[in-house]
Amino acid sequence: MNEKVLSFLVKLFATNELNRLPESYGGGRIFSNPIIGVSRGNDPIFQKFKKVVAPKHLTPIEMWVANELPDEENLSVSLRILSIVCPYSKEIREKSIGLKGLPAEIYCIGRNYANAFKIDIMEKTIKYFEEQGYKATAGMLSEVFTIYPGFYSTWSERHIAFAAGLGTFSLHEGLITEVGCNVRLCSVITDAPLTVTPRKSDDPYANCLFYSKGTCKKCVDRCPIGAISEKGHDKVKCRTLGSKIERVMNKRLEPILKPHYRRIDGQYFKQKPPVGCAFCQFGVPCMDKNPMAAEQKKSRNKE
After folding, report:
1. Which tens digit of pLDDT belongs to each residue from 137-173?
2. Which of 117, 123, 163, 121 is nearest to 142 (CA)?
3. Domain encompassing residue 275
4. Stated pTM of the model
5. Quick check: is 302 in a domain?
6. Is residue 139 a part of any domain in this protein?
7. Handedness of CA 51, 54, 58, 60 (dihedral sign)
């Protein structure tokens, strides 16, 4: 069934008008073809997320029940969590390499439009499962999804993707997938009989050259305000830069950007449209690939 779901998503990514830049910016795709992974509802890692992310991070079963879906017998065994990786297009990535003062306008627009696109993808995927007689829901679409002060939420898409074997974390805290870290993520919980995609490693940093080999700090060099160091990612500094960029780019791109609402600490707020920064994700070895896998492949070819 995984192949059918992936085919459905590939077609959806290709035809969805929400996955398009404005005509004034070429009208090209924001995201290239997706990749997917699947975790099982009773994977012990979801309990670990209550320590790693926050005690209020929900397990798939808790999210399922919170969305008023039936708590049936052996529910944890039957549940599957489909994680979807949305890679930014080659055009957006190439136009963002080397920039430092402000991110590329084409990326800011893509980052802003991505929110509506992800919502649409999750809604259509839920409908896809329902039309086949299964139940489905999504953490980010739930009334219980909220962001808390301290930069954590009740449903972390990065951690859900890690559970599904789609990638591991980096020094800059992005998820390094097989198509790189410059991606967006979303997920759907379902009782459809999807095949689980096992994690290659439970090492949370296995794909990062810095943590695995100590040979890379490109993301440190790329950050204009030193929000990344060998100690990790300073989210407060990062947000400070992000706010400055938002003020400038929102003013510049105001007629094009879409409005943005976010549930914070349980309440909806209208916020400035997010335009992102992502300097640490452009022009780095993990931008569009898993660099550890690439190095291992080179070593095998030399042998």
Report:
1. 999 999 999 999 878 999 999 999 999 999 999 999 9
2. 123
3. 2-294
4. 0.96
5. no
6. yes
7. negative
